[in-house]
Amino acid sequence: MRARIWSVGVLILLLAGCGVPSDDRPRPVEVPPGPFPTTETASPTASGGRLDEALCFVRDDRVERIVRRTDTLSSVEAHLRHLLAGPGPQELERGVSSALPGTITVAGTRLNGATAEVDVRLAGDDIGRSDEVLAFGQIVCTLTARSDVDRVSFRRDGQPLDVPRADGSLSREPLTEADYAAILRDR
Fold first, then answer.
1. At a CB cut-off of 8 Å and minimum separation 6, what does 135 contact?
2. What's one Pfam family the UniProt record gives for this protein (predicted)?
């Protein structure tokens, strides 16, 4: 019986020693040495971890950003190919689609400074249809989500293309996500 009481007493002392000590006042906490992962899509972590890749698709007539995890940093061309491949099965189940098929064919892309220049072929001559606004919005919002792209310009047959913005106006100037803010789904 005495051994049992002694064992319980030792157990209580051990458990009491496992608690977090309390302080009378706050104390500073030192930040551990970095690097720390960021939310930027174009920056790999130092440990070679997975990266976020933003792709913009369509749901309920609005552009919605989807984030996929990838092992490598995609080039602008590869990133755009991932967008053009369309939503995956899980994204389709959530009601996500793409306005790109049948409206815009991407013939090529290149990075010129912080501007992504996209060469396109259009399905028809009537620029400004609502599905084209969504399609151009998908490309602009996807590419400008990258840290190395600030704006996107479009060309057709080597000439600047008038591209529809969310407000219905046409622009030959490079576009940003702000040009499509009215059709972006709140995050």
1. 98, 99, 100, 103, 104
2. Germane
Residue 121, both tokens = 């072929």
How many Å apart are CA 122 and CA 102, to the nearest integer? Answer: 8
Task: Please report where in the chains the tokens 């099965």 appear, as a residue.
Answer: 89
pLDDT tens digit string along 147-156?
999 999 999 9
Per-residue pLDDT, 44:
41
Query: Would you say residue 76 lies in a domain?
Result: yes
**Quick check: is 98 in a domain?**
yes
Low-confidence ranges of the chain (pLDDT < 50): 34-47, 128
- Residue 45 belongs to a domain: no
Number of domains in the chain: 1
Whether residue 74 lies inside any domain: the answer is yes
The pTM assigned to this predicted structure is 0.71
Counting every residue written for the chain, the total comes to 187
Alpha carbon separation from 158 to 26, 30, 109, 119 (Å, rounded): 64, 55, 12, 8
